[in-house]
Amino acid sequence: MTATRKTQIVIVGGGAGGLELARRIGARYGRRDHDIILVEKNRTHVWKPLLHEVAAGSLDANLDEVGYRSHCHRWGYRFFFGTLERIDPGAREIVIAPLLDEDGSELIARHRLRFDYLVLAIGSVGNDFGTPGAREHCIFLDERPQADRFRNKLLNHCLRVSRAMVDDPASDAHVDIAIVGGGATGVELAAELFNAAGALRHYGLEVFDEQRLRVTLIEAGPRILPALPERLAEAAHRELEALGVTVLTDTRVTEVTGDAMLLASGARIPADLRVWAAGVKAAPLAAVDDGLERAPNGQLIVRPTLQTVTDDRIFAIGDCAWCVLPGATQPVPPRAQSAHQMASAVFRNLVAIQAGKPLRDFVYHDHGSLVSLSRFSTVGSLMGNLVGGRMAIEGRLARFVYTSLYRMHLIAIHGWLKGSALILLGRVNAIIRPRLKLH
Fold first, then answer.
1. In the chain, where the domains are located
2. Which of 282, 208, 228, 218 is nearest to 252 (CA)?
3. Across the strands, what pairs with 280?
4. How does strand 213-218 pair with strand 246-248?
């Protein structure tokens, strides 16, 4: 007796959208008639909006990361550790790149994975816009290993400066950090660095404080935080300068070297650490001869149902999806809230398509933007059905809503029971754990 072939749904990318979708589909179908597979190149998940805190050492990612293998066991899907190399729509297969050990030896050969339905949630990477030296000399906060690398380098430079001050109390040694990009990531990182620097004196660097930190935030546009109302962006600008951040607007970086940022004006900004946070583009694939249509920035063009325009069985969500909804002139912005909403929409459509029911168009609800300046301030705007319009918020209310976004993410990927338990555990850890991760 021949066994019935299971419906195989493959999700590539375990970010906010992909992980939530895998949980929801796994919880809906389980393993009896379906084979739900999540393909991801990392072993654990960390919410991307928190990477600036990981980089500064304010967040211990070991406490907040989600292990895919334990998560898949709980929610009824399978986890494949690997990197998507290319898509073969005609054969309904994806090609997984060879898995290599640290020494370069091959652990698992290149192989193919079939799909009945494919969801691409491969996210985005930093866009260097072709700036010479940016890729070689800057750190991009796209993934946890990059954030860990920045934190280790930051601690090493702080130790160097602290040692110089012990040897010579009159020393003018500083840690110079240049951040390119005045969006949420760049602004939040700049503020978080001063929070971390102020705490280092309690963890063995008694002679080091935030006065030994020189941070320059470089923005090519006329102001920082263009997604926020101008009044709030100006408030954030003033707050950063009060902390000690040098904020440069209308300033374009033309080249990055191993020790400086070179500007279009001819000026040179020395920097021990250089961070590039000036925008994102779709994560590239090794081969793009798959017939799928892409926007100029590499995003996959999708219909309002979030199906790719050339293949009804392939969906795309999150930062890798170029979705211009009816009546709109611009695509849905690459934000965590977009990925969350798209995951819900694709879940409904996957259920509908298998039941022979019509698919529903994705409807994007812009809930606004929030930017946290660490413990110093939070600013943002709430929009849509949250407040019945648009409202600028600051201070404690903004901080409460900002914190709530992460709690909503935990519930989305873990469900209400475990998500609520982790929220409670997070509050306990905030009390009993060290303020900084120093290893």
1. 7-126+281-354, 134-278
2. 218
3. 126
4. parallel
Spans in the chain with pLDDT lower than 70: 1-3, 201-207, 286-289, 368, 370, 374-406, 419, 422-439
pLDDT of residue 439: 45
pLDDT in tens, 67-86: 999 999 999 999 999 999 99
CATH superfamily, with its number, for domain 134-278: FAD/NAD(P)-binding domain (3.50.50.60)
- Biggest distance spanned by C-alpha atoms of the chain: 85
The two three-digit tokens of residue 243, written as one number:
């902390």
Fold topology of 7-126+281-354: FAD/NAD(P)-binding domain (3.50.50)
State residue 398's pLDDT score. Answer: 56
Tell me the pTM: 0.86
Phi, psi at 58, each rounded to 5°: -75, -20
Alpha-carbon distances, residue 304 vs 295, 300, 325, 333, 342 (angstroms): 15, 13, 6, 14, 10
User: Structure tokens of 183?
Assistant: 């969006």
- Residue whose token pair is 């597979």: 37
CB of 11 closer than 8 Å to CB of 38: yes
Q: Residue 369, Cα to own-chain centre: how many angstroms? A: 15
